[in-house]
Sequence to fold (513 residues):
Amino acid sequence: MTFVQYLRCLLGITLRESLRFLHQRERFFGALVRPLVWLFIFAAGFRSVLGVSIIPPYETYILYEEYIVPGLAAMILLFSGMQSSLSMVYDREMGSMRMLMVSPFPRWYLLLCKLIAGTLVAIAQVYLFLAIAWFWDVQPPLTGYLLAFPALFLSGLMLGALGLLLSSAIKQLENFAGVMNFVIFPMFFASSALYPLWRIKDSSVFLYEICRFNPFTHAVELTRFALYGQISWIAFFVVVGSLLLFLAGALYGYDPARGLMTRKQGGG
Amino acid sequence: MSAAALALKGVSFSYTKRQVLDDVSFTLEPGEFCVLLGINGAGKTTLFSLITRLFVSRGGAIDIYGYDLHSQTRKALAQLGVVFQQPTLDLDLSLMQNLRYHCALQGLDSGELKARMQTVLDEIELGDRADDKVRALSGGQRRRVELVRALLHQPRLLLADEPTVGLDIHSRQAILQQVRKRCREDGIGVLWATHLVDEVETEDRLVVLHDGKVLAHGSARQIMQETGTDSVKQAFNSLTRSDAS
Fold:
């Protein structure tokens, strides 16, 4: 296999994921409506309740809407990563996962392609959301949009890898709903997406520690700092470390010799 | 001597406690149409999962055109075209988009193969529907698209796991004829898993799989002679009954 063939494989998988996303209109609008509801309604309602002091990367007082936009961008990645793993479970049940797996490319590469494709589709949704937020007067510096890309890419890969890891351990679609409740909501609420961590610390030090160890918090902070032209090195290392950990687990889960797939499937 | 299209030696497999395949051995030569005959639960799909390396066997060896599936996985898989028991087409994508995706997974340039894709769709009389969504096709048409897709990259060994299940008699015949033709004309090996005895012809190579064991292996005619029966159905019944007793 040559480099060009590897590239063709990546482009083919990315094109397929994009087409699938575009053809599923309800998924498209669902992905966009969810953060917009938070921005237009929740943030408007909580603006007066939650005051945000000046904390990095912000250099002045900001409105609550501006505070939660990076968190909502990361929320899109979180939902998309999980949805993409939902599609892995669905694919596996439908058989097209088998088709992917019998390709002569190395399995780790195929899973990585799937992960990258899902992340790119999610990032397109994030930019669409950021464009709408612009008209809602949430206007980070223009260079921030460019600098946010690598942060979104790493965060998206990390969350997608977590989804992939979960999908390798899930037997049926029904079990997935439970995982959504046990993974998505706790990850989202126990993070800095909706409120700064110092506010949580005021209420509960224990909860604060949980939030600090939550990789999603670091995905949010990496995105937040990048949007304002800065980098949070702690967030960067936690996101990259979590990505490697989740990816290793997912590759293990999908390895036919050692993984979980064999144990989960009955035979005919 | 050229390598066998597929050679299985002492392949065994179990799901936790349940033994599904027990010491399965047989070979399939290039250009041969080999029917893997067995009732549901005989272990056919598990065997396919092992040959496509979705699972890894606990014992034995699988060679595809001389490539050991364990140590030369990618070279071995590159020889394969597979039609799985489950539908694997994307219903919301067009026929052409599905074929292009397959090309990408094989590392092929779909631009270069465009003419070929159109030709294979024409062959199954779906050339004018290349841009239709798969969802709009009938069950039989979808299976035929899966088949031409599996052959698009010109594999040397085709694996088909109950590809005619749930189809009407005409669709079944059309698909069988199509595969037999490719086997004859292109010299590819075909492993065709089924539980339908009427899909076996007397000149076919036949492997009878029952409860994870190979009960008979040879030409269908030879197996009928050995069991002293007049039809594949009788031979199959005779073999599986004597195994049970």
About this structure: The mean pLDDT of chain A is 85. The radius of gyration of chain A is 19 Å. Residues 3-256 of chain A form one domain. Chain A has one domain: 3-256.
